[in-house]
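User: Please fill in residues for this 164-position structure.
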């Protein structure tokens, strides 16, 4: 059973858009700190701080070290998928910010969007969200397709206070 200290460490680890982006980068492919820093436009010391936070909380795991281009030892990291079921208190702001960072620079035709307004009672709203979560869960647990393209889905649901 996780302690309060464990839950706080988990919450802190997942409270950063940078750390969530690192987990996404390392989900389907192992990456070294140098690769992570380059892909995110970070100083390697900054990315290493985030990598260590994710390692210490079990969200990343180190793989066998390998030799880099100049013979230096490089450690590749892989996401453990543990973040999928982790509880994130007050997650909405960090998830929205992560999503916005991830789509920055994409062309409009590289982003598929759907938006709708509906009016449902509590039972129908809970039923709809449960079905959507079940679909997400089903696909999140599938192994990666070897010939697949890495993609990301962000779903947000909110009360429309202006339309009531």
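Assistant: Residues filled in for all 164 positions:
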């Amino acid at each position: 059973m996780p302690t309060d200290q464990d839950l706080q460490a988990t919450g802190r680890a997942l409270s950063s858009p940078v750390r969530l982006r690192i987990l996404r980068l390392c989900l389907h492919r192992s990456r070294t700190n140098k690769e992570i820093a380059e892909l995110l436009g970070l100083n390697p010391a900054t990315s290493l701080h985030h990598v260590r936070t994710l390692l210490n909380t079990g969200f990343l795991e180190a793989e066998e070290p390998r030799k880099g281009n100049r013979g230096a030892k490089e450690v590749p990291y892989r996401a453990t998928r543990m973040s999928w079921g982790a509880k994130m208190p007050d997650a909405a702001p960090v998830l929205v910010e992560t999503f916005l960072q991830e789509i920055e620079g994409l062309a409009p035709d590289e982003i598929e969007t759907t938006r709708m307004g509906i009016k449902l009672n509590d039972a129908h709203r809970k039923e709809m969200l449960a079905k959507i979560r079940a679909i997400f869960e089903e696909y999140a647990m599938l192994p990666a397709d070897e010939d697949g393209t890495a993609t990301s889905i962000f779903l947000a649901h909110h009360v429309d206070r202006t339309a009531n």
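For context: The longest strand covers residues 76-79.
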